[in-house]
Amino acid sequence: MCGIAGFFGHRSIAAVTIDAMRSAIARRGPDAFHVAGSIRDDSTFDRQENAAGLQRALLHARLSIRDLRPLADQPMRNRDGSVWLCYNGEVYGWEDDKAFLQRNGHEFFSTSDTEFILRGYEHWGWAGLLPRLRGMFALVVVDLRLGKVFCARDRLGLKPLVYYHDGAAGEFAFASLVRAVVPYLPPAKRGFSPEGIDAYLTHRTIPAPRTVFRHLQRLENAYCLEFTLATGELKKWRYWSPQALTDGQNTWQAELDHAIALRTAADRPVGLFLSSGIDSTVLASRLVEQGYSNIRTFTAAFNNPALDESARAAAIASRLGMQNERIVMPHDPAGDFEQIVADLDEPFADPSSFPTWYLARAAVDDVKVVLCGDGGDELFAGYKRYRQHLRSAWRRHLPAWPKLRPPPAIVPGKRERLALEASLGWLAAYPLRFSGIGLSERAALQPDFSPRPHWWRIPENLAGRTPIEQLLAVDGENYLPEYILRKADLLTMAHGLEARAPLLDHIFVGRVLAMPPAERFSDPAKRALAGVCPQAAEFAFFERKKMGFNPPVQTLLQSLHPRLEGLPARLAATTDGQLSAAALAQAVNAWGTERGYGEQLLQLLILDESLAQLATWRDSAGGNG
After folding, report:
1. Does 538 score more than 80 pLDDT?
2. Which of the two ends of the chain, N or C, has the fewest CB atoms closer than 10 A to its terminal CB?
3. Taking CA 616 as the corner, what is the angle to CA 615 and CA 622, rounded to the nearest 5 degrees?
4. Using alpha carbons only, how large is the chain's radius of gyration in Å?
């Protein structure tokens, strides 16, 4: 697990620019940092002690997990230096393929997954390598023999990759974080994206392929890039789509155990984020059943009893014979607000980011890898919004009625919200079930901008799928990779902690997709998943209300309340007038007293701080030639 960055072009990049890129990814990889590159197109590409003046470069900040020796550091090269790898993530279960490569003449010098990927690319090529990678990754392969740069983001989207491309100038840059690419951008191309800002207001995050910067893009999960060094051409394509696996090689239950066991592989301590919910408890139970009871568990504890599940989690850990550490969440996180916003990279307003950040900060003192239960709700339809939207599934064959779209309003009524849903088709209206600031409110805040109802990507080829399968497919390309998994990556890696999600093993996902619908989609949800936990009856999963992982928003707003002073004018300035100061002032006044608008106020506060940080960052980077 690491932070990666790089660039390929014809400008000689100053050392201060490369240092700014390095500093942006440094916390993701605290154990080692290296640069490889070349000063000119025709000069040798190699490790660089002095990075000044490079035209092509790979940057890597390493969090050492497998084979801790320096010989496993990156960027990693093949024997003659014609192929280079810069990689963030972890792949599993490659040992048999490694043995095959050794039998076919490939010599290995480490026990790292990085070297397996490099040797695998040499043997199978790009198209043959990707199907053999099981795990999470954002990887970049530079093949100087072909004059190509290949990039890929993992199938489910656990690892991030953002990039910049200017075909006319022959330039391409990439990184794990937005903030790591910005220093490379020409100063004229560092403007904020109006669409990205509206997407954030809509979804609390900015879904791929957009970012908060106009000229930066985010690679979608399960997609590849191919950049040609000689022509500057960039190609993008999808390399994988979820499909049911019906080969009979494994049951979904056996595949789950295998996926969990694979993710215990590490040369550093492994832990588990444990709540009292089904997903993480099933992971804990299956770990113990397979003999991994020595894995330490960590649980967030809140002062509010209505939100706190630490006592139940401790009881579960005790019953399973696992050690549990209760991490008390601070009552007032205002002192860490700026750092948390910075670690979120660009505007991102999930209230659970705060406890996730604190939980990761505490856990990293004891472990460097942590398993988490992400993915269970998206696989087994655990969110209540699925049931809510299915109630109107009768609409899916009816046309949309755009003329019903409601007018701008700072506080629209229920009638306007229903009209907005009716103005869209049934599937297109689904993103409204999990949104930030509504369309009417956004139209009022941005009088000179035409906001979209939503910015999610609706998958193609959904014909023939059941309504619930369609909703899960939408989440699989949007909410899961761009909200749940991005948050997990950013807030764990900010502390040098690697998070692994066994439920999102792509082969396990294929087994789940092959389950009979009556088994997979139960009422209450996830009965099948609970069925692989021998202690399920004792833990009484279905006898209490599903708990989220959010801190009390009103308490958070109280601690941040002084930041509302002057916020309308600041946001109007940083967005170049896209957000109206007058409309923002109305919203702050109205939403401060209107029930149900606490998270929207938090969105504005995070946007204010994030844009201010990013504006300072882009301006301080200066020229980069």
Report:
1. yes
2. C
3. 100
4. 24
